[in-house]
Amino acid sequence: MPERTSYDAVIVGGGHNGLVAAAYLARAGRSVLVLERLDHTGGAAVSTRAFAGLDARLSRYSYLVSLLPPKIVRDLGLNFAVRKRTVSSYTPVERDGRPTGLLVGGGQDRTRRAFAELTGSDREFAAWERFYGSTQRLAERVFPTLTEPLPTREALRARIDDEALWEALFERPLGEAVEAAFTDDLVRGVVLTDALIGTFAAAHDPSLRQNRCFLYHVIGGGTGDWDVPIGGMGALTDALAGAARRAGAEIVTDCAVTGIATDGRTAEVTCEQGTFGARRVLVNAAPRELARLLGEEPPPAAEGAQLKVNMLLTRLPRLRDTQVDPREAFSGTFHVAEGYGQLETAYQQAAAGELPAAPPSEIYCHSLTDPSILGADLVREGWQTLTLFGLHTPASLFAADTADDPATRERLLAATLGQLDAHLAEPLTDCLAYDADGRPCIEARSPVDLDRELGLPGGNIFHRELAFPYAEPDGTADSAATAPGRWGVATSHANVLLCGAGAVRGGGVSGIPGHNAAMAVLEEG
């Protein structure tokens, strides 16, 4: 049971952002209570022994780290580290009747040769260098602002100080920039994928949701690198929970919050263990869930669009492209059916209510970079993990699925693995391990599953539509009149703040919304 009946801050949800907020506030001397519905902290950033009888701790939901600022790790004294991947990506393709592919990584000279071998010239590599040189400059200028009060649109534009880049990423559909920069369909597709992670959009979507997704995928850490969490994603959230507890925060698990009441000055949070008073309530849950707890009308839903698959293999599969070592190909992002034309076709089919005939996906092997997630025996025997993230599969496609009859998910999984098998010299199923109960070591989660298990609206991993990282002139959540507004964490209630992915500058494993909510509380005193 909690030690008190009233707190300076009650935090609803013990995911990584809630834990970041708790640690900052408790370190500043505030009394803090964290209430978590599940029997463990971590939310979507957890490590799990997913397969019975096997010592493999997989990052079950979120799996790579890009946006976590080193500042948060330093401020909170976290015992947590990431490791860079030597290969950025490998994309297999068949050209002129033979299997080949594009390997990005292993040094500039090697990458240049890979582009030349695939396309027949140095043009696409030069374009690649120019394009990602621009996004590198963007990352260096934008990323530091994510842990500062929200800049205005014009202030961010001035900070970027590149009108062509601003126009390409903040004003015009991303497809225009991709098509202007590159001519090869495969190269265009590799670039576009960063705009589609969990985001259902076409390259030329006028809403620019693909641009917003792309932006957050290329600015992380000021470099855009996607790094592997040592020990799995649970290592981060375990470290955060430890930091919060050491600072004095109370964390109660197995405790679902059932209601929030507020008059704007004080609040009450009701859960299965009672009702607790709070000066402020920080909500590490989707805006939909906040509306439910307040008894208000939920905001419009923005559904998720992904398939997450975890696998354990006794060995990596051999590739049809014999020029590439599977240990290199799978250590970076392995793109499947992600040519530019393939991505557009998959989007159009899904938008018409059909499962994509060639589902696009990307895969990587955590254990190649960080074998610590596997037991010593599995490492010695050469076992590996595979994580697959499928695109263009909106929640609406799974409307008929239930927990007991996930027929659509199973059809999609089979089609997705079929696309992978087309680039392998042997079926992936020949490499799958079996658990202690004799079942193949593969689990899949659709958007419907993520809604059911984690409370993500329609499986949206960002909680709602991503926003550009600047203050909008209109809207309560973005008003500069209050500290929560300046930090992008405000709701329509003065003392209820968003500290999860639904905040402005939320989404991904970053801790940024948790940091910013804590800063808003501390600024107000």
* Sheet/helix structural class: alpha/beta
Number of domains: 3
End-to-end distance, in Å? 28 Å
| Unreliable segments of 5+ consecutive residues | none
How many helices? Answer: 19
CATH domain fold name of the largest domain: FAD/NAD(P)-binding domain
Strand content: 15-25%
| Tally of strands | 18
The name of the CATH architecture of the largest domain is 3-Layer(bba) Sandwich
CATH class of the largest domain: Alpha Beta
Largest sheet, strands/sense/barrel:
7 strands, mixed
What is the overall shape? globular
Short key terms for the protein model shown above:
single chain; 525 residues; alpha/beta; FAD/NAD(P)-binding domain; 3 domains; seven-stranded mixed beta sheet; 19 helices; 18 strands
